[in-house]
Write the structure tokens for this entry.
Amino acid sequence: MTFKFKKILLSISLIILVIVSAGFGFYFGKTQCKICQPEEIDFSLFWEAYHKLQEKFVDKG
């Protein structure tokens, strides 16, 4: 084998390896990840604190 042939073979092998790895990652990431909607979230405490901060500490002028 010549040096040029080895270099081409190595390049093609690396490209195939990257494509196969990306394919496996995409496949397993898509099938294993089950994103669920969170239950109802209560923001009342957040908004109460936000309004108190606006009322007492934020410059309105």
Remarks:
- DSSP finds two helices and no strands in the chain.
